[in-house]
Design a protein that fits this description.
Elements lengths: L1 E5 L5 E6 L2 H4 L5 H15 L58 H17 L3 E4 L9 H10 L5 E4 L6 H7 L5 E4 L6 H6 L2 E5 H10 L2
Parallel strand pairs: 1-3, 3-6, 4-5, 4-6
Antiparallel strand pairs: 1-2
Helix pairs in contact: 2-3, 4-5
Family: Belongs to the universal ribosomal protein uL4 family.
GO biological process, one term: translation
InterPro entries: Ribosomal_uL4, Ribosomal_uL4-like, Ribosomal_uL4_dom_sf
């Protein structure tokens, strides 16, 4: 399939061919859900922790005598039922990461790209570069393209002026091609690829 290449100023240029095996798949929600869950699970710190009764500094003396009070039988005040006592079955530090086959991860990326093409939310830029790092000027150019919530993916290296100008614009993310991932694609309304990014993706999935 062919898609028109545009510039930051909104001028249409030549067309670029998008490989069907990367951008022309029928998106599957189950695969996209699996990869997003995998990504977010890897990001979790897993440092949650509560103290158990053995870690509470509290008297271990029996609260009151076993019989004759008419009250329930109790011992150590660090027991979970007492205020200030330890937590029963509380969270422990652990890793939330789980495995996902490399082929599924690669397939999910192609499905995410195909989803943007199907929804007509993919734009191809000739290049992402500026003569000077001016956030206001770049924001005006992006507004002219109708981009208020977008992920912009460039080639192997981001152009410094563009990177500096874009970093303070809300809901605009900029990544090199090495950082492209399903979660960032799905969380933004529009995906913007430069010609260099398209070439890199084509080479990557050969």
């Amino acid at each position: 399939m062919d898609i028109k290449v545009t510039t930051l100023d909104g001028k249409a240029g030549e067309s670029v061919a998008l490989p069907e095996e990367i951008f022309g798949l029928e998106p599957r929600a189950d695969i996209l859900q699996r990869i997003v869950r995998w990504q977010l699970s890897k990001r979790q710190a897993g440092t949650h922790k509560t103290k158990k009764r053995g870690e509470i500094r509290m008297t271990s003396a029996k609260a009151y005598k076993q019989k004759g009070t008419g009250r329930a039988r109790h011992g150590n005040k660090a027991a979970p039922q007492f205020r200030g006592g330890g937590k029963a079955f509380g969270p422990e530090p652990r890793s939330h990461a789980h495995g996902l086959p490399k082929k599924v991860r690669a397939l999910a990326l192609r499905h995410a790209l195909s989803d943007k093409v199907r929804d007509e939310k993919l734009i191809v830029l000739s290049e992402a570069s500026l003569s000077e790092p001016k956030t206001k000027a770049l924001a005006a150019q992006l507004a002219g393209l109708g981009l208020s919530n977008a992920l912009i993916v460039d080639g192997a290296a981001l152009e410094d002026n563009f990177r500096l100008a874009a970093r303070n614009i809300p809901q605009i993310d900029v990544l090199p091609i090495q950082g492209i991932n399903v979660y960032d694609i799905m969380r933004r309304d529009t995906l913007v690829l430069t010609k260099a990014a398209v070439d890199a993706l084509t080479e990557r999935f050969k």
